[in-house]
Write a structure and sequence with these properties.
This protein is mainly α. It folds into two domains: about 70 residues, no CATH class; about 60 residues, no CATH class. It contains five helices and no strands. Helix 2 crosses helix 3.
């Protein structure tokens, strides 16, 4: 087994039926799914840029496009759901979760809420008072903060289906 062989035959047999057909009846057939899926796995496992993907996985553009297509059409979600269900059925998953809040850090741009009773620099009102009931200007600032872009996306194409809204 070499460094670039990532899936054994048993693992591939679980994934292969969940992928779309390689021949759609139009144009050329797609490059081999196994080669491309292993390229995606290799890229994420090594943490490399798409352009640095070894040539044995085919052109990096092909691997990237297929990954983007599978992300957009829900193929990766379907594979994950099936694999999780199978693993859970044979009790291979331990669902206990431990969360340590000391590792949660605020982004550097998340510092626009007022401190020590000082008025928010974003709360400008004509009469010089708060906007209605107590705390609404602080709540509005917090909602604006949560809805704003903090630049924390890793793969933005995976988030394109989920538009941001002020309620989330």
């Amino acid at each position: 087994m070499d460094r670039e062989s990532l899936l054994d035959d048993a693992q591939w047999e679980l994934i292969a039926p969940l992928l779309p057909p390689q021949r759609s009846g139009k144009g050329r057939p797609m490059r081999d799914h196994r080669q491309v899926v292993e390229g995606v796995i290799y890229r994420y496992r090594c943490g490399i840029a798409w352009r640095d993907l070894p040539g044995s996985f085919g052109p990096w553009q092909t691997v990237w496009k297929r990954h983007r297509r599978f992300s957009g059409d829900g193929t990766w979600d379907k594979i994950l759901a099936v694999l999780l269900a199978r693993a859970d059925a044979v009790e291979e998953i331990d669902w206990k979760v431990s969360v340590d809040s000391t590792i949660n850090r605020a982004h550097q741009h998340a510092t626009n809420l007022p401190r020590d009773g000082k008025p928010s620099p974003h709360a400008h009102h004509a009469d010089g008072e708060g906007a209605g009931p107590a705390g609404l200007d602080t709540i509005a600032s917090a909602v604006g903060l949560l809805a704003g872009d903090t630049g924390g996306r890793i793969e933005s194409q995976e988030f394109a289906r989920f538009p941001r809204s002020a309620s989330s």
